[in-house]
Amino acid sequence: MVDYSVWDKLLKQYVNCYGQVNYQCWQGEGEKALNQWLNSISNIQLQQLTSQEMLTLLINLYNALVIAQILKQYPIDSILPTFFCISNWLSFLRFFSRPIYQINNNWVSLNDIEHQLLRKQWQEPRIHFALVCAAKGCPLLRNEAYQPSWINQQLNADAARFINNSDKVRYYPDSNLLQCSKIFKWYEKDFLNVASSIPAYINQYLSMTIKESVFLEYLAYDWHLNEQ
Questions:
Q1: Which domain holds residue 174?
Q2: Residues ≥6 apart with Cβ < 8 Å to 62
């Protein structure tokens, strides 16, 4: 079993109930503890874990590695830097595609964890409400670690929190208009694996019922840092 107690303690200490991160304090007080915890789990053999244990590990690992990368660069305003008011997409892509961690004797990037390990192995769209790339447009970061014994309940809660957050999903019954996060556009295939349409998927968690014939628009994504 993977020990998440250090990661859990760090999340409780530096992440508030709104998913905002105190990067300044974390960098000054807890960066070493985070890196030590990441080093301590690098020798874990994924094939020795159950499916649920592996899913839990990879979600926690992704979020922890994002935090570790931000702490190395902080203070920054966004994971999408600008140069003379022009978005630096090369730096942005490097953040996700550069190998930064060794597990199972292989160096992996954030993209590898998300696309090659998580999405390829699990037909589980709820991961998109749990993986947090440190942007305000992302899901809110949990201030607790994911645990194998109740990860299903945690993912259900994440999905409900995301979909009932008006920053991510807005429904206007009078005009039959549904505005939602671009996460539903980028990962449409994953959601359609388990639902007939994006509105149908959202209906599983939204506090009001929307029509499947709704007009669908995607909200602008906020790449600013999810800091306190």
A1: 167-218
A2: 110, 113, 114, 118, 131
Going by the DSSP 8-state scheme, the letter that residue 91 receives in this structure is H
pLDDT tens-place string over residues 77-90: 999 988 777 788 89
DSSP string, 175-198: TTEEEE-THHHHTHHHHHTTSSSH
Report residue 34 as tokens.
């985070």
Total residue count of the chain as it appears in this document: 228
DSSP code at position 216: E
Residue 219: both structure tokens together: 């909200």
Helices then strands, each counted (H, E), the chain: 11, 7
130 and 203 share one domain: no
- Are 173 and 155 contained in the same domain? no
Tokens 């902080």 locate to 74
The CA distance from 18 to 80, in Å, is 22
**Token pair listed for 220:** 């602008």
- Asked if 213 and 121 sit in the same domain, the reply is no
Residue-wise pLDDT for 108-150, tens only, equals: 999 999 999 999 999 999 999 999 999 999 999 999 999 999 9
Q: How confident is the model over 20-69, as pLDDT tens digits?
A: 999 999 999 999 999 999 999 999 999 999 999 999 999 999 999 999 99
pTM, two decimals, is: 0.97
